[in-house]
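ASSEMBLY PREDICTION REQUEST
Request ID: AP-0331
Submitted by: J.K., bench scientist
Number of chains: two
Total residues: 823
Priority: normal
Notes: Please return the full assembly, not individual chains.
Input sequences:
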Amino acid sequence: MKCWNCEKDTAGRPFCPACGRIAARPPGATHFDVFGLPRTYDVDVAALERQYRELSLQLHPDRFTQAEARERRLSLEQTTALNEAYKTLKDATKRAFYLLKLHGVDLEREDAGAQKDMPLEFLEEVMELREALDEVMEARNLDRAQKMAADVEGRRKTALQEAVDTLRTLEKAPPVESSVKKASHALGRVRYFTRFLEQVETFEEEMLA
Amino acid sequence: MSKNGYLQIHDPLKPKGHAVGIDLGTTNSLVASVIQGKPRCLAADEGDSNLLPSVVHYAKDGGVVVGARAKTLAAEHPTDTILSVKRFMGRGPDDAETRKLGAYKFASGGKVVRFEVAGGQPVTPIEVSGEILRALKRRAESHFAGRVEQAVITVPAYFDDAQRQATKDASRLAGLEVLRLLNEPTAAALAYGLDKGSQGTYAVYDLGGGTFDVSILKLVDGVFEVKSTGGDSALGGDDFDRAIAQRVLEALGQSSPAPTLVAEVLAASRKAKEALTDAPEVELTVGSHRQTLRRSDFEEWIRPLIQKTGGVCRRALKDAGVTASELDGVILVGGATRVPAVRRFVAELFGREPLSDIDPDQVVALGAAVQADLLTNVDRQDEVLLLDVIPLSLGLETMGGLVEKLIPRNSTIPTAAGQVFTTFKDGQTGLDVHVLQGERELVEDCRSLARFTLSGIPPLPAGMARVEVRFQVDADGILAVTAKEQSTGTTQSITVKPSHGLTDEEIEQMLLDSIDHAEDDVQVRQLREQRVEAERVLTEAERQLEEHGALLADGERATIEAAMAKVREGAKGNDSHALKESIHALDEVCKPFVERVMNQALTKVVAGHSVEEF
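STATUS: Completed
Returned structure:
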């Protein structure tokens, strides 16, 4: 990337190493690139937080209120990307989904084929949970809803661990399609369980209100 | 011009303009600035209160009165005197908040609330707020005897996009560039945090005249990171007044009272509420009607209102991922936190005594002044940074009147999100987009921010055209939308017209109108400014005469003193033009003398250095 100001290479850094002015975001930069981190699941969250604060102090639009329009825009773009990267990487679940996305499977997209591709036993599990929750909600039984939530939270954790283990194996060797699929199935379950838990939570709030 | 004249030569580093912090409150507004390293609220005159009542009176002759004097006119002219205008910012005429008990006369029709007032066309809340901001700007300008063009303006954290936009528009009308819209609880935390050099996690409980906010913040190494925020932009001390007023009107047997009576009862209720902070029992008088109010009754009436804040606090804690016992402190902000029942409730809710050692009326303005200084003062830039969040989720309408959330609440700003739309008919060239803000699932339960049509999509078979819509929320919490057709790369920027806001054209027109309007008080203001300037110039001249009298030429002292006498005389009169002339004349007369003073100072500096060093 050429610096807009001095035309030297910015080397993907937030500020041009040659002239020190704020740089444009390199196209295709990942959340890991924002922090200069390797593309791995294991991230030192405490160090990430410190780095986030340091970068924010330098890049935030508040630092550019009296700067010219171009620098204000670059600050906005970089800070937006920084916030998004931090939000994703600090969270164990979001980080796993993001790594899967970098492997080519985006489970966040509604029209993603990966969702329809889930194994049959998972669909059975979904049906069974759905029915049980409907019953509990109809009976307005808060106690049973909370017990179900605890059970599903356990399943969610197991599925996430499975996904994380698979993602770690993907880091070591060239990606194998079957492993990507395995991680995708595990995270597909995490996604379903998370939504299920959100529903229980909404129900709880309604009951307590 | 004497502003850049010779008598200012000894103050070459004086910044070009002063940046101020403004708390644009429901009941009172304040302007503050960092002076000699410390934030201070500015009073209109020495010894005066620094609270400017947020009251605007429109007179029959077209004149506008703001503040304490406007407040005294409220009883006699209730509908021409607008109180608590902040409640109406960014709201439509049918909003529940608009319909609460109050002495207002609304103009019919339109998407925006408009008040019928004496002396001209109906006015919008943006214009009324613009008058308050203009008065504060004037106050600061007369304090500094110089222009004030940049401000940090505080808004309730729970203000939505339309309310923020309205606040920004009001500043534009007042001729103020908004450096940043700052959330009120964050401003308060800034005032506290810098004062105490604190680290840790804090809750700010902010109950003002018309709005309630709670924010959970984490302070580490100078970074104030807002973890979550929650609130109710239609709940505040005004509702406590109304709780009393409703009982009084019932006792009076009035089911549809006249505006004058409503205004009178509301004012008496407010007084009673304030008195009940210290007294267990007060007597309320309206005309010949007398009624005894007990604090215990009052607390019973407002209990549901206070409890409403409890749920909001619990959700904010949950969103932040902390429990009440993990907090390092709770900060009280806003006049309504003086009510003892509120204090007790907060102490119980958070399990600790809340902090209120900075005046809860001033703390927000002081924090805003600090932020204004941080944003404009290069020397202070590495010290502190605020990272704030968007209070309410942003989403789009999808099939079946449901809302799909794109940016969840409590996302750190600036933030952005994209969504790809595809066409569903062959040859379709337009797409309707409906932007909403709120937490509920149904469109009708959320705040409609904007509706627009993406046009110019190339006619393609259904599903082939893909339009990416991108939402960017800036550091003020304000939304901008852009759209890009992916197959052709055509980019389209969309002006988001807020559903309850004003168009740019309307704002332009108001700007023009306000310039006509302002002519009246320009004279008064100029005179005031010139008087301040006169005083400054006289002090400076006296100082120079005293310190460098030896440098005076023959007869020069007499000439300067004569010119000084002219300025003193002018300052007593009412002719700002003549006063300005006399200041200019004094400046000219002083010129040779001041130059000699400068030369001497320079010689002293240069002595002992070789020319090469320069």
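REVIEWER COMMENTS: The helical segments of chain A are 31-34, 45-59, 69-90, 92-102, 113-116, 120-138, 142-172, 177-208.
SIGN-OFF: pending second reviewer
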